[in-house]
């Protein structure tokens, strides 16, 4: 680890993004904030300098998302566009793919969504059946279905995880394809979610979607390595999303509990209100420490070490966020459920970090099997 947990540059980034976030606040509009953050270089802090990025890593990008979330204005697509798609293209894309995508993902003028989840596979990604077939012209033909894919409507393209036809059985040999939004046969249907967010989720159908040979990112036989190069940053970024939201909720609750007086002293003086808030603050800090460890391992090239830490960070942050939001709502009493105070809608939003991109239960499975060496039930 570096001598201090965060470098002076990282601390300065935290302060600068926090200032931007506070200026936009809870009433933010996503496209406006996205554009401004892009111009300031925050969306691409993790991408290579040679392609218009900031030359940092997921450590820096997670700071951006956490601070925006803590100010009440998280940008969900940061988890996907620069973190998953940008990383995979930067690490495994051709020079032409890098030239075409990275500068635009970095300045925010283009957005890329990411689709792995399928209706009949869910948590078991090994069961995905979206299939890519190469025809005699060298084009790829994709067929399949995806579900819960975020931001497909605002994304210029979606990075779709498929498998090659001859790898239909056995363990997953994933292949990654850039599918532009208006490609014939690529249809989307918005899912009606109980989420108060600008980013929508979609069910996708790919019906004989024809793509040129250069739509494939990386090697079709590379296996899981390329996929996890994107999925570990996704987990770290989901932790940042959760920590930011948890911090926002706790800050609103603390503000309220300092003033609200219904007996002789403010409600914050009652330990039944104060202690759970203090506990949440500690849990969020601990989750951030794990997130920083995961980001540090990933940024220094330890993909295997980062995998375990990213899972643990996502777990810790999701749990801390759910508890923080729950306690914040309780602290406000009836006002916790009003639109004016805006905390109730965070109850469902917080649950996202417990379910996606990998559920709490699947992380516990991972730690049981991979870390503790316990036998598998499935
Ligand atoms: C708001 C939101 C945005 C999303 N955005 C994207 C996106 O952009 N791209 C994308 O690809 N996906 C996205 N997802 C999908 C998300 O990654 C999945 O919902 C998640 O992986 C869980 O899959 P599932 O919903 O099919 O649940 P299932 O796999 O059906 O699981 C249901 C429940 O069973 C439990 N379970 C399953 N198997 C086991 C087991 N072996 N042991 C113990 N418990 C088990 C799970 O933990 C869960 O609690 C998004 C989801 C949401 C809610």
UniProtKB/TrEMBL annotation:
Cross-referenced Pfam families: Acyl-CoA_dh_1, Acyl-CoA_dh_M, Acyl-CoA_dh_N
Entry similarity comment: Belongs to the acyl-CoA dehydrogenase family.
Keyword Ribonucleoprotein on entry: no
InterPro entries: Acyl-CoA_dehydrogenase, Acyl-CoA_Oxase/DH_mid-dom, Acyl-CoA_Oxase/DH_mid-dom_sf, AcylCo_DH-like_C, AcylCo_DH/oxidase_C, AcylCoA_DH/ox_N, AcylCoA_DH/ox_N_sf, AcylCoA_DH/oxidase_NM_dom_sf
Cofactor(s) the protein requires to work: FAD
CDD domains: ACAD
Domain annotation Acyl-CoA dehydrogenase/oxidase N-terminal: ranges: 27-108
Domain Acyl-CoA oxidase/dehydrogenase middle: 113-209
Location of the Acyl-CoA dehydrogenase/oxidase C-terminal domain: 222-365
Keywords, in A-Z order: FAD, Flavoprotein, Oxidoreductase
Domain of life: Bacteria
Protein name per the record: Acyl-CoA dehydrogenase
């Amino acid at each position: 680890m570096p001598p201090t947990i965060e470098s002076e540059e990282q601390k300065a980034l935290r302060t600068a993004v926090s200032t931007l976030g506070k200026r936009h606040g809870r009433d933010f509009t996503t496209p406006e904030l996205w554009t401004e953050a892009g111009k300031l270089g925050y969306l691409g802090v993790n991408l290579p300098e040679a392609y218009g990025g900031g030359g940092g890593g997921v450590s820096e990008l997670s700071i951006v998302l956490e601070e925006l979330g803590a100010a009440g204005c998280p940008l969900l697509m940061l988890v996907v566009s620069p973190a998953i798609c940008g990383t995979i293209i930067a690490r495994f894309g051709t020079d032409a793919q890098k030239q075409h995508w990275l500068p635009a993902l970095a300045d925010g003028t283009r957005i890329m969504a990411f689709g792995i989840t399928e209706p009949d596979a869910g948590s078991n990604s090994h069961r995905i059946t979206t299939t890519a077939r190469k025809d005699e012209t060298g084009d790829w033909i994709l067929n399949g279905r995806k579900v819960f894919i975020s931001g497909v409507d605002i994304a210029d393209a979606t990075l779709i995880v498929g498998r090659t036809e001859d790898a239909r059985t056995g363990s997953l040999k994933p292949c990654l394809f850039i599918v532009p939004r208006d490609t014939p046969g690529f249809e989307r249907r918005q899912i009606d979610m109980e989420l108060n967010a600008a980013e929508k989720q979609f069910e996708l159908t790919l019906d004989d979607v024809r793509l040129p040979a250069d739509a494939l990112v990386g090697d079709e036989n590379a296996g899981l390595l390329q996929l996890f190069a994107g999925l570990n940053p996704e987990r770290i970024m989901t932790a940042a999303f959760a920590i930011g939201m948890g911090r926002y909720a706790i800050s609103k609750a603390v503000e309220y509990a300092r003033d609200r007086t219904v007996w002789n002293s403010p409600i914050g003086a009652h330990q039944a209100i104060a202690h759970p808030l203090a506990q949440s603050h500690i849990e969020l800090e601990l989750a951030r420490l794990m997130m920083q460890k995961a980001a540090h391992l990933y940024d220094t090239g330890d993909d295997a070490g980062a995998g375990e830490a990213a899972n643990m960070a996502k777990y810790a942050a999701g749990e801390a966020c759910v508890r923080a939001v729950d306690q914040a709502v309780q602290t406000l009493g009836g006002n916790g459920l009003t639109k004016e105070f805006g905390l109730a809608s965070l109850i469902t939003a917080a649950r996202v970090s417990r379910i996606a991109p990998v559920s709490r239960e699947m992380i516990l499975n991972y730690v049981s099997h991979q870390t503790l060496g316990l036998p598998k039930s499935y």
